[in-house]
Specification:
Elements lengths: L8 H11 L3 H28 L6 H12 L4 E3 H8 L3 H13 L3 E5 L7 E5 L1 H19 L6 H17 L5
Antiparallel strand pairs: 1-3, 2-3
Length: 167
């Protein structure tokens, strides 16, 4: 692990932005840089928790999406839409999950042109085990109180909405 810094490098960068006269962009730069650093922290924590299960976060998300669906099945296109990822990413994740026996591919009975991914009982168990580990070691340890977590989520939702993620 890297040694802890005595000063926040993003706050230092913000100060440098202000000294250059970029006052209108300084806070935005600090926010974007902070979010990107926090994303690195979360990815590292999530990968460490999921590694023993052989899952990546992308595969975990697919399993959870299928597990939350009414039938345990969704068309691959719907998975990509809900997870906001490229179709190739869905195909790769489902390929690996299928190889591991966690999902099956089935023809869509409502649309012969599309394929359904269906979670297996092993996939359901893997999703539950991974969720328990993530809930305990990552999701419940965000270092904010409940009110702060909800506020941050609302603020990030505003950014995502303005970026066109949802209406």
């Amino acid at each position: 692990m890297a040694r802890k810094l005595g000063v926040d490098p993003i706050e230092l960068a913000r100060t440098n932005w202000l000294s250059r006269g970029w006052d209108d962009a300084a806070d935005g730069m600090a926010i974007v840089t902070s979010v990107m650093r926090v994303q690195q922290v979360f990815v590292s924590e999530v990968e460490a928790v999921l590694k023993p299960s052989g899952l990546t976060f992308a595969r975990y998300e697919v399993l959870m999406l299928l597990d939350f669906s009414r039938t345990g099945s969704l068309p691959l296109g719907k998975i990509g839409e809900r997870l906001q990822v490229h179709p190739a990413s869905v195909t790769n994740a489902v390929d690996r999950l299928e190889l591991d026996g966690l999902v099956t591919r089935d023809p869509n009975p409502l649309d012969g042109r599309s394929t359904l991914a269906t979670i297996t009982s092993r996939g359901h168990q893997a999703a539950m085990d991974a969720s328990a580990a993530l809930n305990e070691r990552v999701f419940s340890k965000v270092s904010l109180n409940s009110r702060e977590e909800r506020n941050l989520f609302q603020l990030l939702s505003q950014v995502r909405r303005s970026a066109g993620d949802f209406a």
